[in-house]
Amino acid sequence: MPESSPPLAHPEPAPTRQVLRGDLLDFTADPGFAPPAEATGVRWRPDHFLMIEGERIAAIQPASQALPAGWADVPVADHRGQLVMPGFIDTHVHCPQLDVIASYGTELLDWLNTYTFPAERRYIDPTVAHEGAERFLHALWAHGTTSAVVFPTVHKVSVEALFDQARAHHMRLITGKVLMDRHAPEGLLDDVEQAEKDCVDLIDRFHGQDRLSFAVTVRFAPTSTPEQLTMAGRLCQTYAGTYMQTHVAENRDEVKWVAELFPTARSYLDVYDREGLIGPRAVLAHGIWLDANDRAVLKAHGAQIAHSPSSNLFLGSGLFNWLEAEREGVHVSLASDVGGGTSLSMLRNIADAYKIQALQGVRLSAWKALHTCTLGAASHLGLAHEIGRLEPGCMADVVAWHVAHGPVAEHRDRVAQDKLARDLHERVFAWVTMGDERNLVSTYVAGQCVHSAPRAVDQ
Ligand code: GUN
Ligand code: ZN
């Protein structure tokens, strides 16, 4: 080849095309606590084609219309009669706690010491951390969750393992090194200087790469010295695009302990606020025992509470007053908080959320709950351009669901379908109330099928 020839062009291969056919359900706005029949923002597109090109949704159209040129020979995954929804977003979940999910008999502080801290200590071992991260992400997908805000452990390798696994699958993941420099056992403690260096290194290597974001991760106020909280605030201010995640006001004994440890703070939330930790990218789990001043602070910053229903019931922490938070302008998302929570399934967590509200005389519609796990969480995380919706241009993080699994749910669904034209909510509500991961058909992350339920074999 003469020296002057231009280098051979290597055109990018055309992105793969695929089509899903099913009943599309997503949201265009928050239905709020309106009665289901009056709710707005619900987008129901029965029997539609969802067209995927590469990692993104390319187009959506009724299946009654012929596919456009260039799509006619594309394989169609047949999800007719199934719900096709955006993947769920779990805004607070602990990777290493799959080892202690469903541990008997204690409230928060005792549960941490008895079960959680010993399990987290094992993550100093890179093999444990990498195997744990892989198992965890596969478990999320098998439960219909495609994006998450995750607590690893204090060990840097536990963060690297999660980021590596998520990046390999182009998954949207928010996580960061857990900060804790007191009130935890040996093997789970860091120090301010090394912790800051580790966080900066992780931010440099992972934050903003692919679909990864770093979160400054204060475990909770009792396990950080005031000096460490100041350092965490400095990180949030210096790296403005990062998130912040922590726990707040979950349990009454915890709240009393924080008041003793930080006597000059106005409240538990103030311990974080006065260090500059509360901003629009702050995700605070629980928030059961906050007061009106705290809620005003959260509203002013656009910070969100990650309401964790199954955890709050299981650990006996209390009943979160969602309606009050909503009326006072606080952003609320839904979270599994496994292993305080008893299931990674957002459906099961929705069912628990319904019961928590019912005990307080409030009715949580399936529309409000599903919006919260999809577009609501995406909006509060500043990611609605990417996840939480079935919209051309968004990432193809999509899940197909059977509306009913098992004879009782199937019978209930047949009854509800008789009235479908009048009341779609009745059918979808029965699904969220009775459903779980056994209803799941397929999970797609960035256009790749990462989990498929095994097909039933005829006897
Ligand atoms: N508060 C501090 N750490 C934890 C944790 O791991 N789980 C829950 N539910 N609350 C916490
Ligand atoms: Zn938690």
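^ zinc ion complex. The first helix runs from residue 108 to 121. The longest strand covers residues 42-53.
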